[in-house]
Amino acid sequence: MSNFLTLQAAAAERLAQHLPSASTLRVAGIVPARDAAAYASPAVSATFVGASTADFALLLVDRSFLDAAGGAGLVGAVSAVDVLRPALEQAASAFDAGVLGELREEDAAGLLNDPETAVFELNSAHQANDGGVPFGWFAIRVRDNGAVNSGGGLTAAGRSAQDTDMAARLGLISNVEMALTVEIGRTRMSVRDALALEPGRVIELDRSAGAPADVLLNGRLIAHGEVVVVDQDYAVRITRILDGAEGAH
Q1: Strand partners, 53
Q2: Please, what CATH class does the domain formed by 3-144 belong to?
Q3: Is the whole-model pTM more than 0.85?
Q4: pLDDT tens digits, residue range 173-229?
């Protein structure tokens, strides 16, 4: 399996693990693009820019789980693209450091018709058993930014060209504002429990007192830190910067 195809398969697996579906999802394997073509509109698409550039398109047969996850009908309901962004961020983390661009709902026919695109079929457990319609498809096209040697790695010239090209491209977005979030813990609850929240209710988080807080950039873990108070405002003191592999988990 080529290096790129290995990355694509890893991205599809991470996406399946983090989609907010009520059932467990798995990657059934690569399928012809025509299998997903009937569901090409609308797809949720995004482009990842890093050492390699990757185009993503997520095609779903049944989008009802997005309404449930986003709280459709409630005040402050979350849009479909915002619900899906964490899962696509996880998929992008397979390609190491980089930036996942804006998510768009659009026709994915152009991506599906490209012979360089790999299309992975996603199934839930019961669909895999009864042979029903797949849960959806995840299309990935990787565009290399450097030459590859016969051993599967970049040549010295390829690395130099890649570094120069990457620096130039990342320079274009160096002034783009990104959301920095500090997370002290999280928990999962049913919609019923969420609707029952009221003042005074205590919600237990999955982290012990004194444990470091997570620092996330656009939803991706980049550092650990401790919460401090500066002039009566909360702040975070960075205690550790994570490398790309650590931040992917």
Answers
A1: 49, 143
A2: alpha beta
A3: no
A4: 677 777 888 998 888 888 888 888 899 989 988 888 888 899 988 888 888 999 888
